[in-house]
Amino acid sequence: MHEPVQLAGLVLAAGDSTRMGADKAMLPWPPPTAGATDSPRHTLLSAALLAFDNFTRFNVVVAGRNADAIATMVGACGAYLVRNPAPENGQFSSLRIGLRDLLDRGCNAAIITPVDCPPLSPSSLERLHYAFLGALTAGFWAVAPEHDGKHGHPLLANRDLIEAFLKADITGNAREVLHAHASRVVYVPVPEPLARAGLNTPEDYAAVAE
């Protein structure tokens, strides 16, 4: 018998955002339109946490040198803040830190996204969540969105995939682990284009705003 799914959200926000020139976690989301006078209600970070709230027991944010700067927002969203003491080791190190934390807090599954991947629509997240529950009963480990042949975030992972991430070599990366267990991952079509995932530069952000 499968243990009940206890899902936690995990947002990876420990990068230095050097190419963006500003902390990506704090960028307004949606981006302000030209001529707009009202203040943005959310940032990329708070929008992700709000999107996950409908599906998770709690959310975890992994921060790096920006931990103090985003702590207030993380707390206001009711999430837990975890620090990566060595963010220069890369996003995979943040993923492992976050996964260990949510396991310690009693969850056995995770919905994972880098902070620079804007959240999908509520209907697409609902589709992914429903597909994830069905996939688990069929022996799969994870689901992720797909659009026009492109894969994106968030990734919904069960305990088996979480353990695979944690047992992998620290010098590896999430893509290698997913490739090694490709037969256990289901890709779910969503209507939104996923090419916008990964906003790394001011030009990327401006393109989305337009």
Name of the CATH class: Alpha Beta
SS strand fraction = 15-25%
State the end-to-end CA separation.
Answer: 49 Å
CA gyration radius, whole angstroms: 16 Å
Low-confidence spans: none
What can you see in these coordinates?
This protein is of the alpha/beta class. The chain has a single domain, classed as Spore Coat Polysaccharide Biosynthesis Protein SpsA, Chain A (Alpha-Beta Complex). The chain is 35% helix and 19% strand. It has helices spanning 44-53, 67-76, 91-104, 122-137, 159-167, 174-180, 202-209, and strands spanning 7-13, 58-63, 80-83, 109-114, 142-147, 150-151, 155-157, 185-189. Strands 1, 2, 3, 4, 5, 6, 7 and 8 form an eight-stranded mixed beta sheet that branches. The protein starts with 6 loop residues before the first strand and ends with a helix.
Highlighted features:
210 residues, alpha/beta, Spore Coat Polysaccharide Biosynthesis Protein SpsA, Chain A, eight-stranded mixed beta sheet, 7 helices, 8 strands, 35% helix
SSE arrangement:
Layout (H helix, E strand, L loop, with lengths): L6 E7 L30 H10 L4 E6 L3 H10 L3 E4 L7 H14 L4 E6 L7 H16 L4 E6 L2 E2 L3 E3 L1 H9 L6 H7 L4 E5 L12 H8 L1
Parallel strand pairs: 1-2, 1-4, 2-3, 5-8
Antiparallel strand pairs: 4-7, 5-6, 5-7
Give the structure's gist in a few sentences:
The protein is of the alpha/beta class and 210 residues long. 35% of the residues lie in helices and 19% in strands. The protein contains seven helices and eight strands; from the N terminus they run βαβαβαβαβββααβα.
